[in-house]
Specification:
The chain is α+β, with helices and mostly antiparallel strands. It has two domains: about 1-170, HIT family, subunit A (2-Layer Sandwich); about 175-330, HIT-like (HIT family, subunit A), CATH 3.30.428. Helix content is about 25%, strand content about 25%. The protein contains seven helices and 14 strands. The protein has a ten-stranded antiparallel sheet with strand order 3-4-7-9-8-13-14-12-11-10, sandwiched between helices. It has a four-stranded antiparallel sheet with strand order 2-1-6-5, with no helix packed on it. Helix 2 (about 125-140) crosses helix 5. The longest helix has 22 residues, at about 250-270. It is globular and about 50 Å long. The chain binds uridine-5'-diphosphate and zinc ion. Zinc ion binds next to loops.
């Protein structure tokens, strides 16, 4: 894979032709029957994944969570000696800048149970999944500057190609524009006020209450004030840690409970809704300790962005966040 920078936006794009070779389990519009029989993530087919990077042992010498390299990665680990100089090195030719797509793309197989899902509950299982992501995020952020992004896809409309419950973690040697922007805004807020934007935001949402879905001691779930999609929900811990890698066990437990609450609520309210969530944290390097706050952004995929949205970059949301939050609150 190769990273190219758009000279007009300075945003990075990954060119990853090998991604086109990955098997799609989904026919349109339903999963191909029998996918369970061939699933590469089910127990007994461990040899079909590359060697394991991490495992949480399960009963009887088995496993309860496995982390393996993605066989069709968006970015690939560096092949040569891993020096600062080669990781993500830029090559410039006139207006055209590219970078070696050194990085890592891992799959977190969340459970041996092909049919389980977060919305079914099991806060301990979800906390263990978050713990696996945190463990790998700690390892990956040591590899140099850039971003580590754990995320989860659910449903064909959210880009899922395999049904077996899994998350993924991608680390890139560049900081994508959106993340640089989030970081800059939080830093400017800290410059202006001396505070942390995200912690102040949680406090303001809890005070107001209209967009709160649920709250626990160490985290809150709310629909953001300017939600970009119907039922967009953020889960934000109330202990300040810029990087997800530094999250405490207590915060992970509360975030896990809120994820179950929100995704379970969505399912009770609207059925098996496709969604993506991403765990957003500060870029690697320890910067942001005073102004950033890791959090989870859950984006249900109920509508398709069309011409105006793509052309303008401005989202059109047909469900006000106050209504979305009230409905989710009442779907316990
Ligand atoms: N995959 C894999 N080994 C396989 C088959 C698939 O590592 O034998 C990867 C595949 O590349 C994909 C991931 O498993 O990235 C499944 O991810 P998901 O369904 O969330 O969505 P995708 O990444 O395909 O958009
Ligand atoms: Zn399976």
């Amino acid at each position: 894979p190769e990273l190219r920078q758009d000279p007009c936006t300075r945003d990075w794009v990954v060119l990853a032709p090998q991604r086109g070779e990955r098997p799609l389990e989904w026919g349109e519009p339903v999963p191909v029957p029998g996918s369970r029989e061939t699933c590469p993530f089910c127990p007994g087919r461990e040899e079909r994944t590359p060697p394991e990077l991490w495992r949480r042992p399960g009963p009887d010498g088995g496993w309860s969570i496995r982390v393996v390299p993605n066989r069709y990665p968006v970015v690939t680990p560096p092949t040569g000696p891993a020096t600062e100089a080669v990781a993500g090195a830029r090559r410039v030719r006139g207006l055209f800048r590219r970078a070696v797509a050194d990085g890592s793309h891992e799959v977190v197989i969340e459970t041996p149970d092909h049919d389980w899902d977060i919305a079914d509950g099991g806060t301990d299982t979800v906390a263990a999944v978050l713990d696996a992501c945190r463990t790998r995020t700690r390892v990956l952020r040591e590899r140099g500057p850039g971003l580590v992004l754990p995320f989860r896809n659910h449903g064909a409309a959210a880009g899922t190609s395999l049904a077996h419950p899994h998350s993924q973690i991608v680390s890139t040697p560049v900081v994508p524009l959106r993340h640089r922007h989030l970081h800059d805004v939080a830093r400017a807020y800290h410059d202006d006020t001396g505070g942390c934007l995200y912690l102040d935001l949680v406090r303001a949402e809890l005070d107001d209450g209209a967009r709160v879905v649920a709250a626990r001691e160490r985290a809150a779930a709310f629909a953001p004030y300017a939600a970009r999609t119907p039922y967009e929900t953020w889960v934000v811990p109330t202990e300040r840690r810029a990087s997800f890698a530094d999250a405490s066990d207590e915060a992970l437990a509360d975030v896990a409970a809120l994820l179950v609450r929100v995704l379970g609520g969505l399912r009770r309210l609207l059925g098996d809704v496709p969604y993506n969530y991403a765990i957003v944290g500060a870029p690697n390097g320890g910067e942001g300790a005073r102004w950033f706050q890791w959090h989870v952004q859950i984006v249900p995929r109920l509508t398709i962005a069309a011409g105006f949205e793509l052309g303008s970059g401005m989202a059109v949301n047909i469900v006000p966040p106050e209504r979305a939050a009230a409905e989710l609150r009442n779907a316990p």
